[in-house]
Design a protein that fits this description.
single chain, mainly alpha, two-stranded antiparallel ribbon, 6 helices
Length: 132
Amino acid sequence: MSETYTERLNRFKHNEKPEVVLLLADNPDGVKLILAWANTKVERHGSLTELKGEGEADVWDWLWENSTFCCTELIEKSGLHLTDTGLESRLRPLIGNRLLYPDGTVNSFVQRYLRERVLKLFQARSKKLKER
C-alpha cells in the first residue's frame, strides 16, 4: 500500500530544518507572505496526479502540484503590491526551502521564530509604557 498525501507531507514536517528561519531575518516581505499564507485557504485536489518518482524533490513537487490556493487572496492578505508573477517569484524560495507547506501550514521553526519576535515587540512596548 502506498503512502497517502498526508503521510508524505508529514514526512517533510517531521524532518524540518531550523536553519530556514535565516531566510526571514532581513525579509519583511517574506514574513508578510508567511503570515498571509497561514490565513489563506489552501485545498488539496480531489483526484491526485500520478507521482513520477520517489525522490524527496519529486514528492515535494507532487505535493504542491496537488494543492491549490488563490493568488489574489494571498496577495491581498499579505498587503504587498504584487502581480501574480511577482508573487510567484517571492513564493519560490519560501516553498523551495520548505518554509511553507502545501496544506496551508508553516514550518514549525518559522512559527516559533515569528512568535518570539511578536513577544519581544510586546515586551519592548510594555517597557516603554512603564517608563512613561
